[in-house]
Amino acid sequence: MEAPSLSVRKGAWTEEEDILLKKCIEKYGEGTWHRVPFRAGLNRCRKSCRLRWLNYLKPDIKRGAFADDEVDLMIRLHNLLGNRWSLIAGRLPGRTANDVKNYWNTYLRKKMVKPSPKLNIEVIKPRPLNLSVPLDKNNNNNNNDSDHAAASTPASNSLVSSDSGNNSSYDFSNDNNEIMWWKNMLMNEDEPQGFGNNINHSASGDQFINEALGV
DNA sequence: AATCTCTTCAACCGCCTCCGG
DNA sequence: TCCGGAGGCGGTTGAAGAGAT
């Protein structure tokens, strides 16, 4: 619960507040959000500070319209994960969960007027598949198929290659299982039987992600 | 030009999970 | 083991701008 401090400020952030928050994060780093309002001299709650930073002020945030390949990837991930916006955003470098959620609710939900049986997903429990095909770092196993655009896009590069840049997505370079799982999922998303067979539906997506991230 | 309606997206709210004491 | 605080997430709201009438 928030400390019922005398009238914590709400609503739109001012430029001045943004500057204060930015300076504070630059100085102390992210985290310990409960201390941020005090450190920054802001009359805002910790959640508001965190949200403002993550959704707007963070330097690597990508602004502007979603590219076709980002949308394609988003749809595929949504088919796999459901409304797990933070997980989806984690695979879209520079995009925030809020961006993804807003985009989905604004544009894509309209298109999915009635959820097809395929979209009526029970959230799968992602886990690495045992693929015998070695993963080519250039992802050339199936890249002749235009429908697999996601696998050759900058966004998805973070899925299949070492992503040592400063974006916030997970660096999969040390986890071939993770790489292969995602690769397989994205490529076979049109063929439910393609990924359903080897999946243990007893675990949760979170569990998988945690395992994959080694947490 | 004025008013109404729709769209967009930043921000808030409430809940859940995790972790340390 | 229990409890409280902090972090994080998804759903929802509402203000502002754009477009339509």
Give the SSE map.
Layout: H1 15-28, H2 36-40, H3 46-57, H4 68-81, H5 85-90, H6 97-111, H7 154-160, H8 176-187, H9 192-196, H10 205-213
The protein binds a DNA duplex (21 and 21 nucleotides) through helix 3 and helix 6.
Largest sheet: none
Order of helices and strands: HHHHHHHHHH
Mean pLDDT: 64
| Total helical segments | 10
Overall, the morphology is: elongated
CATH superfamily of the largest domain: Homeodomain-like
As a percent range, the share of strand residues is under 5%
End-to-end CA span: 27 Å
CATH class of the largest domain: Mainly Alpha
State the low-pLDDT regions, or none: 1-5, 114-175, 189-215
CATH topology-level name of the largest domain: Arc Repressor Mutant, subunit A
Please state the second-level CATH architecture of the largest domain. Orthogonal Bundle
> Helix proportion of residues, in percent?
40-55%
The domain count comes to 2
What's the total number of strands?
A: 0
Would you tell me the structural class of the helices and strands? mainly alpha
Q: Supply Rg.
A: 19 Å
